[in-house]
Every structure is written in C-alpha cells, then in structure tokens.
Amino acid sequence: MSPGKITSGKLKRFMKVSIWSDVRCPFCYIGKKKFEDALEKFSNKDEVEIVWKSFQLDPSLKTDTHTSMLDYFVKTKGVSEEQAMQMFSGATKMAEETGIAMNIQKGILANSFNAHRLIQFAKTRGLGNEVKEALFKIHFEEGKNIDDISILTEVAVSIGLDAEEVKQVLKSDDFAYEVKQDEMEARNIGVRGVPFFVFDDKYAISGAQPVEAFLQTLEKVWEENKSELKISEGDSCSSEGNCD
C-alpha cells in the first residue's frame, strides 16, 4: 500500500519507516522489539508501513561453523573470555527486558548476505517482517547458521514461503542487487551503524533507543504530516449539494 490510496471513499495516509539492520547485530534485534512495543502504543499503527533495509556489519566475514561468537570476539577484540562475557552481558540484559532470551556467545559465526537476500525475497511476498524475526531468533536464541541454505529454507517455509522457490533464489544471485542497493543508500544518507530508523525521510533514530523515543517520533511525524496536508482546490460539489 502506498500514500494516497483511496479506501472506501476515504483518503488514507501512511507513514513509512525504513529500518536498516543486520541479522548479526544483537542491538538490531533489541531495537526491533522496542520499536514494535512503541508501535503497539501508537494510535495510528495500522497506517505505518515498515520497510526492512539490508546492511552488513562485515561483508567480508567468512562463515565458520566451528567458531562461536565468543571465540570470534575474543580474537578480533583482543580481550579475555571473561572480558568478552562482561561485554555480552549488557546486551543480554537489555534483551531480557524486551522478552528476548539472547545467547550471543553461542551464536555461529556466519556471513549474513544470503539471509539478507532471503529477506529481500520475502518482502516481495509481504513476509519481510516475519522472516526478519525468524532469522533473529535462530541466530541469537537457537545458535543456528544463518548462511546455510537448508536452514534458511526451513525458516522460510516456517513463515509460509515455498521451499522450492526459496532454494532457487538462494542457489542463484537473485536479490543480490537489492541488498547492495540498500547498502549504497545507507552510505549515501550517512548510516554508520545499525539499527537505523528513518521516519518518512524526515527524522532518524540510531540504535536501540527507549520505547518512548520511538513513540515520540512516530507521533511527531504523524502530527507534522497532518499539518502539511495541502488540498488543491478545483471544481467540486459540496456536502450541501452545491456544484460549481
């Protein structure tokens, strides 16, 4: 659905929220939950269109099923396991507050490019949000490989996509262009980290902000849109039946 669609004789207005995120990013998962909590409190939630945008934290990352996120973090950051666990604890605690049973340290080190291609495909079937949620869950809660075609296919089928279609997409280069276009758009608007939320191309929120911050921005943009709605007058008939 797009802005200006006529439904039952009434002009419907929609707010678009574009969200850049990576399936590998714990704060993207947390940010998604916080945004959804804000949306539930927003009185016009049914008129908000969510557009998921691809962003890879590390496009060059090589999938390694024998390396856990803990091992990878220790190696790349040059810290001890104890220090790494302390760093993970902050995100884990924040996740618990949003209802996520996050287990970052046991996550499998995997490149997210194919997962992003799956999300792009799911968007064409109206299931972008569903597959995004499912991928976050298997990566951060179940410790599954988000770069494995068989696992990605299982995820896709679980949210209603066709297995053969998904396999065909993942075994080809389909939707690679869309992923790269999103990443180029992110660079053009100055996105340096994710999650990154853009409201009607007017306001942006970076990071997993509090629910109140998302709600305030939703309400602000909605009110501004109302005040900016301009009507071009032309020949018409009034409700009193006068036509001129």
Give an account of the 3D structure:
The chain is an alpha+beta fold and 244 residues long. It is built from nine helices and eight strands. The chain has helices at residues 26-41, 69-77, 81-97, 113-123, 128-140, 149-158, 163-170, 176-188, 211-228; strands at residues 6-7, 10-11, 15-21, 48-54, 64-68, 108-109, 196-199, 203-206. The strands form three sheets. It has a four-stranded mixed beta sheet with strand order 4-3-7-8, with helices on both faces. A two-stranded antiparallel sheet has the order 1-2. It has a two-stranded antiparallel sheet with strand order 5-6. Helix 1 crosses helix 9 (211-228) and helix 6 runs antiparallel to helix 7 (163-170). It is globular and about 75 Å long. Mean pLDDT is 90; it is low at 1-12.
In short:
Helix content is 47%, strand content 14%.
Strand residue content: 5-15%
Q: Could you list the spans in which at least 5 consecutive residues all have pLDDT below 50?
A: 1-12
The average pLDDT score comes to 90
Largest sheet: 4 strands, mixed
Number of helices: 9
Rg over CA atoms, rounded to whole Å, is 21 Å
Helix content: 40-55%
User: Can you count the beta strands?
Assistant: 8
Shape: globular
Q: How far apart are the first and last residues' alpha carbons, in Å?
A: 33 Å
Supply the helix-strand structural class.
Answer: alpha+beta
Question: For the largest beta sheet, what order do the strands appear in spatially?
Answer: 4-3-7-8
Q: Please write the string of helix (H) and strand (E) elements.
A: EEEHEEHHEHHHHHEEH
